[in-house]
């Protein structure tokens, strides 16, 4: 370390960041629990030396925020690129450091005079949420094109004790499943090439010591705020150094940086704390305060969606009767899903033709909207703007508007091709159609779907997958500017486009097309690791789940749906009187609690019974809690044990009640029930967290909703 080295520090409510910069790229020396002592650079000096092994470089190179192969770093570098095969390595010199006090941020500007590049590294530590954001920008100061093969948004040191990795993967209808693996010598590369965030790979990794859990272990989480191709790399080198590295994964030759042009890599968001629940609280707080649109802070309306009730069987008569039945159950927003436009009598035609079908709606959507308003509800409409069917007027007129590579036929998926929204004329068309419809029908909300991966994502000659998310963000920004009161949901065959990048423009997520409550309990648990519950679309479906064929009680379906922004995707016209009463009960329950739930803390709860999924949402002051327990299969033991709650005020006394209206369903499976289930019970917050509630025997595919209120 040179004599000119400088120590930089950022502090938040519970975390601290220490950086050391000399004449090159800064080193992240510490990110973790807030430090209490004041310090100077000399305090760090004796802690940075390292022994040097024979057969290694003569001088130890400290791991920097932007590793350089030119200094002998053998792992994944911060930048890989070239100018027509030349200038393939880089050496950065520190030019300027700015401390932005209002943002609690540091901006490091570095230069590579040989390669004619400028680099900007920005680190900001959010005071309230303790989330550290890292962003990288590259400027080409040369006279010819520079090709970026890899540019890391962030390279973060991996603590030596972090030898286990948790990541999320899945498929359509089975998103956000969690997998663990050891971190061994070498690199774990989670590469997403689906063109959207994808069902297959969530853009986050969580590391910690072996066996880290919901409330235990020093845990580090990194998330990439990007809605396209990405790479997440967890690497351990032979010298013991480890890194977490995140960035956009470009297609070959895709990122061409022209002279004087700048490329801003998407931000990486990081949090560190004791147990995964602490990380969850950091991300929820940060997303609520700094990411989501303002309208997500208002009470979230109960949705009634037409899809599983009608599919493509559209008529004004069908819709009016469904609207009336939905309103009787307490719906506050009615969403007309796929099937209202163009040639859209089935899923093989019409996408791209965003004009109301006059053969189905001779007066347009006006009669439908009128009935929705008469019932006191908001009106929502489904779109899939980025897609086009070959069987459509739009494709027949503009076959060149789709992503493609000349000479190779693009395979269809769901009978669809993908529009090149990086083209100005395509974006202009979509903007005009969407805004015109929003204005004509005073639409309150749109469900923005995107139902296939990008394949051969080019303009005919060159790849342009990375330009699609950026163009999408611009289109959404333009629509929101023109329609400032419009609410937008992100949907992509369910959860295939969920990330902090898209959430700066959308404030609701259709979590999965699978609304089987037993599958949903697992899906939602994965989603809620990072994203707050009030934006999680969660619907009560039919008795027989359309995706799995599983039959479940209405109680189970409603209890699981109450974890998020509640609604129903059900044919309300065909419910009997008992079903209507039960569904109306849970709808009222959601309305009763949704105010505090939108600011609640989410806890994944541990259970000794692997058949149970348990979680809770707790008011920030610890005064009220709703705990959900779902049984996926039969219990392995004759007694189900105790459920230890979390987050309650320890010195408070709490009244414990079964909030779900299904005691009789549960009672049939036990000779005796715990006292709190059969009468009024109370205990201290401390005992509810340390000893916990005894659970009843729960039949497979059942659920409980437990309320603890401070008395």
> What distance separates the N and C termini?
59 Å
Biggest beta sheet attributes: 10 strands, antiparallel
Strand content: 25-35%
Helical proportion? Answer: 10-25%
CATH superfamily label of the domain at 78-290: alpha-galactosidase from lactobacil brevis
Instruction: Give me the CATH architecture of the domain at 78-290, please.
Output: Distorted Sandwich
- Topology, number of strands: 39
What sort of overall outline do the alpha carbons produce when their principal axes are compared? globular
CATH class of the domain at 78-290: Mainly Beta
Kindly report the average pLDDT value.
95
CATH topology of the domain at 78-290: Beta-galactosidase, Chain A, domain 5
Number of helices in the DSSP assignment: 15
Poorly predicted ranges: none
SSE arrangement:
Blueprint: E1 6-11, E2 15-21, E3 27-33, H1 41-44, E4 79-82, E5 93-100, E6 105-112, E7 117-125, E8 132-140, E9 146-157, E10 164-171, E11 174-182, E12 186-192, E13 201-208, E14 218-224, E15 230-236, E16 242-248, E17 255-257, E18 262-264, E19 268-274, H2 276-290, E20 303-305, H3 307-310, H4 316-328, E21 333-336, H5 366-374, E22 378-383, E23 387-388, H6 393-397, E24 404-405, E25 417-418, H7 424-441, E26 445-448, E27 459-460, H8 467-482, E28 487-490, H9 500-503, E29 508-510, H10 517-527, E30 536-540, H11 554-561, E31 565-568, H12 577-597, E32 601-605, E33 612-618, E34 624-631, E35 642-643, E36 653-658, H13 663-667, H14 675-678, E37 681-684, H15 685-690, E38 693-694, E39 702-710
Parallel strand pairs: 20-21, 20-31, 21-22, 22-26, 24-27, 26-28, 28-29, 29-30, 30-31
Antiparallel strand pairs: 1-2, 2-3, 4-9, 5-6, 6-7, 7-8, 8-18, 8-19, 9-16, 9-17, 10-11, 10-13, 12-15, 13-14, 14-19, 15-16, 23-25, 32-33, 33-34, 34-39, 35-38, 36-37, 36-39
Helix pairs in contact: 4-5, 7-8, 10-11, 11-12
